[in-house]
Design goal:
The complex is a heterodimer.
Chain A: E1 4-13, E2 16-26, E3 31-35, H1 42-50, E4 57-62, E5 65-66, H2 72-78, E6 80-83, H3 95-99, E7 106-109, E8 113-117, H4 119-133, H5 149-161, E9 167-171, H6 179-194, E10 198-202, H7 206-212, E11 215-220, E12 223-229, H8 235-242
Parallel strand pairs in A: 3-10, 3-11, 6-9, 9-10
Antiparallel strand pairs in A: 1-2, 1-4, 4-5, 7-8, 11-12
Chain B: H1 3-9, H2 14-30, H3 37-62, H4 70-86, H5 93-115, H6 121-139, E1 145-146, H7 150-157, H8 165-183, H9 185-195, H10 197-202, H11 207-233, E2 235-236, H12 244-254, H13 266-285, H14 290-312
Antiparallel strand pairs in B: 1-2
Helix pairs in contact in B: 2-13, 3-8, 3-9, 3-11, 3-12, 3-13, 4-5, 4-6, 4-11, 5-6, 5-11, 7-11, 8-9, 9-11, 12-13, 12-14, 13-14
Chain lengths: ~250, ~325
């Protein structure tokens, strides 16, 4: 049984059909690269997995559990995390609060009034996560907007990893990064896979895909046209599938 | 921890304290009465109505929204509360309920229109500004509603331990509001929504519900301010709170609330409200016509936003 099983997903926006029955499996600890031209349906497929878009047909299952009709919040609670290309960080809030955004633990003020955000716990656990990922930042108390692009990327990853995710979807995590920072993000992906997390990596940088992924799935015009083992393919073949030139 | 970093961490702009201190020095040089004990309570009393409104403004602006209907909703709630008792003959607690319910309801209508119908907040609350004022004038036939029960007058004119009751109401409301904005999930989510709406959505925050709650909260504050105002002047006044949103929004901005959302502090807003109160009080002591107060507040608002813009571009401080 795979970690994630997508079966025959169809999705249309009005008259425009974007996904034509996509079927895809991801196993625990596997890094799957998802590639395709602009407009191939990558973003729509990811939003169908995270629950942002309800699907017209087909099913999404996580560890055998049908999650097709659940909300994005529910799926996040079940362990599906998404790291967006724009990172979805709140620039003026501090690093620790960003990592716990939407999932702040609470305690009682003076043991009486409930609902007080437990900032001490947030700070302690955020610091632990930052240390674990080896991110070099001046402090977890500074606003995220003051960090470099690479540091912000790792904060977004830290947020996804703090709540023991089962599946992490990363949308162009290396597109805005310097060469050295790309290496550390790819190392992180390998580390996540080693811990048993399933990863879907979307990228236009085939070098990164070939370095990080064991399987490469090509999406074209809303359908999977190739599901390749990295060891038995090469960049030329992948490119030919992407542009639709494969015989 | 230095004093500066204490205020920075509380999201209070240190400049607002400098402005406050400068204003106090200036006013005490101009008027010998300014620093007297009795005038101190005059200032606080003058601060209460705008201060309570400014709390509502702080929440909404922190979430990258705006509420231009604060002053008009204050007027509506004043009339509705007084009408409950004096027109309908209900017992005095209904004045309190009427004020708070009218404010909250008007705010909830704002919230529904912004969050569900997705009309821009600027337009929605500008519309409500006209609707609430018109409704207040219709209900009261354009006349003040006089003769409130003594229990209500205590809320506006009582002085337990020598301190005016409205000051207690402002301090307690501000303390609760500070706790909510700085220390609850609701507060954290409010700032996150104002900072980056996509981030709020992506982390599973129910943005629609949050917006609805924020505008309802802002309306509740306008209702509370309406209650205090009504009790203070002993009148359900359909023209109450005219242009008060100007002072309330100015107080929030002076206090360090980011006009574009993501940052806000009730403590800062209270400093801003005090600046508004002192400005008003000082101009009165100088025998200036109240028309000048409007000009002064308007100028301060523009100047405060301008300074904030300069600072965020790194040109000042």
């Amino acid at each position: 049984m795979s970690l994630l099983e997508i079966n025959g997903i169809e999705k249309a926006f009005g008259a425009v059909k974007v996904l034509h029955g996509v079927t895809l499996n991801v196993a625990a600890g596997e890094v799957v690269g998802l590639v395709g031209d602009n407009g191939a349906g990558k973003s729509t497929l990811m939003k169908a997995i995270t629950g942002v878009y309800p699907v017209d047909k087909g099913s999404v299952r996580l560890n055998g559990q049908d999650v097709t009709n659940t909300s994005p919040g529910d799926r996040r609670a079940l362990g599906i995390e998404m790291i967006y290309q724009d990172l979805a960080l709140a620039a003026q809030q501090d690093v620790a609060n960003n990592i716990f955004l939407g999932r702040e633990p609470t305690k009682r003020l003076w043991g009486l009034i409930p609902g007080m955000v437990d900032k001490a716990r947030i700070d302690a656990e955020a610091q632990k996560m930052v240390d674990r990922l080896g991110v070099k930042i001046p402090s977890i108390h500074i606003p995220v907007g003051m960090l470099s692009g690479g540091q912000q990327q790792t904060i977004a990853i830290a947020r996804a990893l703090t709540f023991q995710p089962k599946l992490v979807i990363m949308d162009e995590p290396t597109a805005a990064l310097a060469v050295k920072e790309v290496g550390s993000v790819l190392d992180l992906i390998a580390q996540m896979a080693a811990e048993g997390i399933g990863v879907i990596l979307i990228s236009h940088r085939l070098n990164d895909i070939f370095q990080a992924c064991s399987r490469i799935v090509v999406l074209r015009r809303g359908a999977v046209i190739a599901d390749l083992d990295r060891r038995h393919t090469d960049m030329a073949e992948v490119v030919s599938y992407i542009v639709g030139a494969h015989a | 921890m230095t004093l500066t970093s204490f205020f920075e961490r509380a999201n209070v702009r240190v400049e607002s304290l400098i402005v406050l201190a400068g204003l106090v020095v200036l006013m005490s040089l101009i008027s010998p009465v300014f620093l007297s004990f009795s005038n101190f309570f005059n200032i606080l009393l003058a601060t209460t109505t705008v201060g309570i409104l400014a709390i509502g403004a702080t929440f909404v602006i922190s979430a990258a929204g705006i509420d231009l209907s604060l002053g008009s909703v204050l007027g509506l709630s004043s009339v509705v509360g007084a009408a409950m008792v004096l027109y309908l003959g209900l017992p005095w607690p209904f004045l309190i309920i009427g004020c708070l319910a009218a404010g909250t309801l008007a705010g909830a209508v704002n919230g529904l229109t912004v969050a569900v119908a997705r009309v821009p907040a600027f337009i929605v609350t500008l519309g409500m500004m006209g609707i609430a004022r018109g409704l207040a004038l219709i209900i009261s036939s354009g006349q003040g509603i006089y003769g409130l029960p003594p229990e209500i007058l205590f809320l506006g004119q009582g002085r337990p331990f020598g301190i005016p009751t409205p000051v207690y109401i402002l301090v307690i409301t501000a303390a609760v509001a500070h706790f909510i904005l700085a220390h609850t999930r609701f507060g954290h989510h409010t700032l996150a929504l104002g900072d980056n709406e996509h981030a709020a959505r992506a982390t599973g925050i129910n943005v629609r519900r949050l917006r609805l709650q924020l505008y309802a909260l802002s309306g509740f504050m306008a209702g509370l301010a309406g209650l205090v105002f009504t009790a203070r002047v002993n009148t359900g006044d359909p023209t109450a709170g005219l242009n008060y949103e100007l002072a309330a929004i100015t107080a929030a901005i002076i206090g360090g609330t980011n006009l574009f959302g993501g940052r806000g502090s009730i403590l800062g807003t209270m400093i801003g409200a005090l600046v508004m109160g002192i400005l008003q009080n000082g101009l009165t002591l100088m025998n200036m016509q109240s028309y000048y107060q409007q000009m002064a507040i308007g100028t301060v608002l523009v100047a405060a936003v301008w300074l904030d813009q300069m600072r965020s571009r790194g040109r000042v401080l």
